[in-house]
Structures are given as C-alpha cells and as structure tokens.
Amino acid sequence: GDMSATVKAYFALKLMGHSVDAPYMVRARRYVLTNGGAETVNVFTRVTLAIFGQLPWRTVPAMPVEIMFLPRWWFFNLSKVSYWSRCVIVPLLILFAKRPVVHVDEHLGIAELFHSAPMKLHNLDSFSIRSPLKSFFVLLDRLLKVVEPLIPNAIRGRALKLAENWMRDHTKGKGGIGAIYPAMANAAMALRTLGAHDDDADFVRTVQAIEDLVLDSENAIYVQPCVSNIW
User: What DSSP assignment string belongs to 144-169?
Assistant: First the structure.
C-alpha cells in the first residue's frame, strides 16, 4: 500500500458518505494505523489535509512566497527546477501564504487515522542522527517558520503579485498549467484563494483543463494520465 494515497482515498470516500464500518474502510484504517498513522503522509497530502482542516498548517514545511525574489545565482531558485515543478510550486506558494481552510463537519473528518490528536501537532518531522541532511532541512524549516511572520506585509504582497502573475501567464494555453493535474488543481485553488470569481477567464480555463482529464465510460469514470511534452 501507499500511505498518502490510502489516507486521501479514505478521506474522499468518507466525504462521499461511505460508512467507516465498511470492510474496505476498516482495512484501510488498519493499514494506516499499523504503518505509522496519517502523521507519516507526504508533503502534498499534508497540504491537502491542511486545506480541509484535518491538520494545522504549521505541520506543512515552510515555503515562503518570497522565494519568487530569489536570484538565479542563489543556491536555490525557481529557474533551477524543472518547468512542471515550477508549475506545481508557484501556486503552492500562494496557498502556503494564504493558508486557506475549508471547514469540514467533524463527523466527516479523519482524526481516527492519526495516533495523536492531529490539531495539536506542531511539526511532523524530527531530527535524525542517521540523516544529517534531513536534520538540516528540519532545522531550516523551523527557522523559516520563526522568520516568516516577521516579513513585512508590503514585501509579502509584492511576492504574492509576482506569483499570481507568473501563474496566470502560464494558464493561458490549452492543456492547463504544466499539463499536469497537481499544477492545475493548485492553480485553481490559488486563484480562488486570491478572490477569482466563477467567470474569471484564467479560473474557467484551469477548471476546464481539469475536467478535460476526466473520461466517462458506461460504467466508470476515470482520470487519464497527464503527459507533459517538455524537453
């Protein structure tokens, strides 16, 4: 099994009204709890759970939107990652800055998949003697979380505008931003978080790109793979 996929599937099924006592839900819950609990999901799943109020945003690694300002000569900047990565990251930077939360009724939540009360968690990573590199990034994450609230609103506003402009510029073509679902979904949520209305052209185009991935057959609905033809 895959922890992150299982947690998201369980949550989706529960939101759709499936009983937690259904055999497949019991099996999924047992798998999650036996293998460390929902505390061990990956970063993208943490973001999803934070958006739906199942985890506090503080458990998501710090990614300040001010990354948009980093110059090309810096050891990390957006030009040093692949195009599809930029398409995923830039909308995420907006979401991380805005920290939107969709409130879900308590009985539809997934607290039962955690070993600890999820809303009381602070950081889901810990230092590791066996992995100095991981410990470095954990320390960096905690330092950024201390510094981030001190960033002036004017600077944050400029960074958000840069990210929004970049994102909108890359939603203009057919096939959706980055031609991959995560980027499209992040962009749709980021646009909505920034106040985009139902008739916003970039929002409409992004949602349509997501819908275009869905294929209907007589007895099933499934999503076709996203292929990005970028060299």
Answer: HHHHGGGS-HHHHHHHHHHHHHHHHH
Tens digit of pLDDT per residue, the chain (231 long)?
Answer: 899 999 999 999 999 999 999 999 999 999 999 999 999 999 899 999 999 999 999 999 888 999 999 898 888 889 898 888 999 999 999 999 999 999 999 999 999 999 999 998 887 665 445 677 777 777 888 888 888 888 899 999 999 999 999 999 999 988 889 888 999 999 999 999 999 999 999 999 999 999 998 888 888 877 776 554 433
Q: What is the pTM of this model?
A: 0.86
Q: Give how far Cα 85 sits from Cα of 18, 26, 48, 89, 216, Å.
A: 34, 35, 18, 6, 29
